[in-house]
Design goal:
With 120 residues, this protein is mostly beta strands.
Length: 120
């Protein structure tokens, strides 16, 4: 079974920085695209950033220029570097990965979520 474990969330003041990480483990044959999503209280989950296996990135307009997504394929890990944080960034952040195992086709897996709180 594949598991995604997130870490790096916490409390930070507006203007500060935080780095999230998400490591995939298990019987992994190949990892395709990976991404980060977030859900603020009373809102729907929204896409924050994605990165393909080749390194092509895509960002939500609200975080473009402030957040950077990158990955370490040797560790099956994706990161989200968050700079110039705003109170509006406060949310539970979830990582996602499209993974092929030795016995299944590609499927989407989700991390457990990590809380990011930005104080004003």
């Amino acid at each position: 079974q594949v598991h995604l474990v997130e870490s790096g969330g916490g409390l930070v003041q507006a203007g500060g920085s935080l780095r999230l990480s998400c490591a995939a483990s298990g019987s992994i044959f190949s990892v395709n695209a990976m991404g980060w999503y977030r859900q603020a209280p009373g809102t729907q989950r929204e896409l924050v950033a994605t990165i393909t296996s080749g390194g092509s990135t895509n960002y939500a307009d609200s975080v473009k220029g402030r957040f950077t997504i990158f990955r370490d394929n040797t560790k099956n890990t994706v990161y989200l570097q968050m700079n110039s944080l705003k109170p509006e960034d406060t949310a539970v952040y979830y990582c996602n990965a499209r993974i092929r195992t030795y016995v299944t086709m590609y499927d989407d897996y989700w991390g457990q979520g990590t809380q990011v709180t930005v104080s004003s």
